[in-house]
Write a structure and sequence with these properties.
Elements (H helix, E strand, L loop, with lengths): L1 E6 L7 H15 L3 E6 L13 H5 L11 H10 L2 E7 L7 H16 L8 E8 L4 H14 L12 E3 L10 H24 L19
Parallel strand pairs: 1-2, 1-3, 3-4, 4-5
Helix pairs in contact: 1-6, 3-4
Length: 211
């Protein structure tokens, strides 16, 4: 099994990276490979609401010049998805938001490609804004009908300079417990295939309140 982790921080090995690696270490103990993709240092344009991914149904975003479509295919093949972001103005990093908007919309309109995969989020923060960012990341997982493992607290770790997160004893435990629970849930899903029937996917009901 494989987990695909996305580092939304501009810093390749900042505190978001350390949070991800703490989770990944527990996954690897259970024989689950983790690939980390650095998103935060890329130039990624946000969704333009062109609707072409709905029309084309080819599992691709039409915007050129970045790696989003390559990452979408990696997400499709992965068993687990781990999203990580620092906090910028009590919100996730802008490049990460642009990537997630496009990738999750494409996977959604092309047959819910991430449905019933295991997904989790982690946040690195200096002081405050961790929970709003955690909620924002989880919105993508919930909308995609992914299965979300928990820890023994919210998945937020603290630190300012790169590496300081490793000094957050409670934050480190949160990441370790998350990694263990994520591995457990991924194994449950894998071993349940063919043994437990998954619920049928329902066509999305759209309701507009202004007509």
């Amino acid at each position: 099994m494989k987990t695909l982790a996305f580092n939304g921080s501009p810093n390749k090995e900042g505190n978001t990276f350390h949070a991800i690696t703490m989770v990944a270490a527990e996954l690897e103990k259970e024989g689950i490979e983790t690939e980390i993709i650095h998103v935060g240092n890329k130039v990624i344009r946000g969704c333009t609401a062109c609707g072409q991914c709905i029309k084309n149904k080819n599992e691709q975003c039409v915007l050129p010049g970045d790696e989003v479509n390559e990452w979408i295919q990696k997400m499709k093949q992965a068993d687990g998805i781990l999203l990580g972001s620092p906090v910028h103005y009590a919100a996730m990093a802008g490049t990460m938001k642009s990537f997630l908007d496009r990738a999750f919309y494409v996977t959604g309109v092309n047959g819910s490609l991430l449905r019933h995969k295991v997904g989790a989020s982690v946040v690195a923060v200096r002081r405050s804004g961790g929970l709003p960012t955690f909620d924002q990341l989880n919105n993508f997982l919930c909308y995609s009908e992914m299965l979300i493992p928990t820890s023994n607290y919210w998945n937020v770790i603290h630190g300012t300079r790169p590496g300081e997160a490793t000094q957050d004893a409670e934050g480190g435990q949160i990441m370790r417990v998350l990694g263990k629970n994520m591995a457990y849930l991924m194994k449950l899903v894998e071993n349940g295939k063919g043994a437990v029937k998954a619920p049928a996917i329902e066509r999305k009901t759209m309701m507009n309140f202004i007509r």
